[in-house]
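Hey, sorry to bother you again with one of my protein questions. There's a protein on my desk that I can't quite get my head around. No rush at all, and the record is pasted right below.
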Amino acid sequence: MHTAFPMLKVMQIPPKPRDRSLLMMSEVGIPLRATEDLLEVAGSLIDYAKITDHTGLVDRLSAAWIKRKVALYNASGIGVLPGGIPFQLAVLQHRVEEYFHAVRDLGFAGVEISEDVIEPLPSDKREEIIARALELGLQVMTEIGRKNLDVAFDTDAVCRQILRDLELGVSKIYVESSEIQELALSNPGALDRIAALGKNQVLLFELGLNQPQEKAAWLVERYGPDINLASVGPADVVAVDAIRRGMHRKAAYRYLTEHSGS
C-alpha cells in the first residue's frame, strides 16, 4: 500500500491474520452504511467484531440484516460474533442448542460462552456446552469475571478455568472489563498472573465503556504493545491503535520520546 508519507515510520503491528496485537471491536448494531465507512478507514485494524446490541439481536434486527452485516466484515477479513448476553438468555430459556444452530446459520464465526451475569454453570454442564458448540463448527470464546462484581474474584480458580478452557478447544478468552478496572486498583498482581498465561496469544483484555482509552494505555504500558484488546467501541478503534503504537496523547507519545535520539 502506498501511504501518504512513505518516508516516515511508526511501530508496526503484524498483518492479518494476526495471532497477537488483536483488536476485537464491540458495536451496538451500527447501520450498514456506518459499517462500510468504518471499514474504509479502519478495517485493517480490526480482527473481530462483536455485535452487542443484545436486545436488537433478539427482538429487532432481522436475520437478513445480520447476514449482510457479517458479510461486510468478512470481506475485510474480520470474524463476527454475537455478544454473550443472548447466550445467557438461551441458557435461562433452555434454548442453547437452537441458539447455536441460529448462530451458525447466520454466518457468525463463533459464539461467546459467558456467565458474567447469570449464575455460573456447573463445570460439567459448561464443558458439555463448549463441546457442542465445537461440534457444530463454531469457534468458541469464553469470558472470565463478572460484570456486576457480585462474586469474589478467585485468581487461582480463574487461572485453572483458563487452562481448562484451552484444553477443551476454546480459542480465545476475554477478561471482563469490570474486573480489570477493579483489579488494576486493588490487586494488579492478580492480573499479572492471568496475563502470564497468554496475554499475547489467547487472552483478550476488555476495555469496556468506562474510560476505554485510559484502560488501553494502562494495559499497553504494563503488558506491552502485543497485548490483545477487546470491547473496543467503533469510535475508539483508531485511538486505541495509536495508543498501542505510542502515537497518542494517552500513551504520552512514547514512540516519539523513545526515538528522539535516532
